[in-house]
Specification:
alpha/beta; single chain; 3-stranded antiparallel sheet
Length: 333
């Protein structure tokens, strides 16, 4: 399917079409996989070694396994002032609540959210461990994550498709401006303005007295190069900007799938929940169904299953992804 953006194929829409086809054609019978957990881990290791190509589909559960939790200690450490004022208890909820606050406060919140979920590496080396398992393999990654951790871990940028946006990008609120803008410089300035200080490794942390501001100066409220107000480049409605880079990655994903559609492909789904299954989970099911050489693997915590129809070519491993990848690679967490 062409998206007519420089006449490139649109892997995103193609995947959604496959996902919808899966919804229409699969029955309601599901399987938790065949064999014990250790047997399925052994099967995954073998598939990673023997597959002609690996398509990784990653959701929020992968970053959670890597330590990027939106509640608990990370939230308490960096957002306790916002929690006290507004009453929310996690970063995700906070992003909605602060939309009603004054702009100086709202953007102070988003500067922290962006920095601690985009410009630092996840606490655990789960992404690096995944990359080691793909060493020497022909692979491609499609993800709904927006935290940039694949690139921070060393994945090839040309083999990545971030479908839902990037915490590191702003977009204009003017729908006519179909461009995105890098926000790293602004984020650093906004963190400094709140009183965060750099540690010995160059990363922002709380000052010794824990005294930080919950707002930024009015003049630091971000604007586009044209002087327009901006918002996050995150898919929430039809105002999401699919820029040139997004379309290039979408086309690369389409091309990768087309070149490998009849080969021994491992579709490795990690941490994909029920929020957007039509982007990764359902298309993976459909592509395995259409290709008798393909294998589907699902790594998740509490949400691991596959259609009964493909269970003989499916690997379902329930548990902590960090632990599972460690066992597959032969190292421990």
């Amino acid at each position: 399917m062409k998206n007519y953006y420089n006449n490139q194929p649109n892997g995103y829409l193609e995947s959604i079409q496959k996902g919808l086809a899966a919804v229409r054609s699969y029955d309601l019978r599901v399987s938790r996989g065949i064999g014990s957990r250790d047997e399925q881990i052994a099967r995954l290791k073998k598939e990673l070694e023997t597959a002609d190509a690996v398509v990784v589909g990653a959701g929020a559960g992968l970053s959670t396994a890597a330590g990027f939790t939106y509640a608990g200690d990370r939230f308490k450490r960096y957002f306790s002032d916002f929690e006290k004022r507004f009453g929310f208890h996690d970063m995700y909820t906070g992003g909605f609540v602060v939309m009603n606050a004054e702009p100086e406060v709202m953007w102070a919140y988003w500067a922290r959210h962006i920095y601690f979920n985009r410009y630092v590496s996840a606490p655990k080396p789960v992404y690096q461990n995944l990359l080691s398992l793909l060493a020497g393999k022909d692979y491609f990654v499609i993800t709904t994550n927006v935290d940039h951790q694949f690139q921070r871990a060393g994945f090839d940028k040309k083999r990545l498709f971030y479908t839902q946006g990037d915490y590191g990008l702003f977009q204009s609120i003017d729908p006519k401006v179909q461009k995105t803008f890098d926000n790293e410089t602004w984020t650093i300035q906004a963190m400094e303005a709140q009183g965060f200080v750099r540690d010995e490794n160059g990363f922002f942390t709380l000052p010794d007295n824990k005294a930080i501001k919950m707002s930024i100066p009015t003049e630091l409220i971000p604007k586009s190069p044209e002087g327009k107000a901006v918002t996050m480049n995150l898919r929430s409605d039809d105002s999401f900007v699919e820029d040139a880079g997004w379309h290039k990655a979408s086309a690369a994903y389409s091309d990768f799938l087309r070149r490998h559609e009849n080969l021994h492909v491992l579709y490795l789904e990690i941490g994909v929940g029920a929020n957007t299954p039509v982007i990764i989970k359902y298309p993976f099911w459909q592509m395995v169904r259409e290709n008798q050489q393909a294998v589907y693997a699902c790594l998740n915590y509490g949400e691991t299953f596959c259609p009964k129809e493909i269970e003989k070519r499916a690997i379902c491993i329930d548990g902590d992804t960090a632990d599972v990848l460690g066992k597959v690679a032969g190292f421990t967490r």
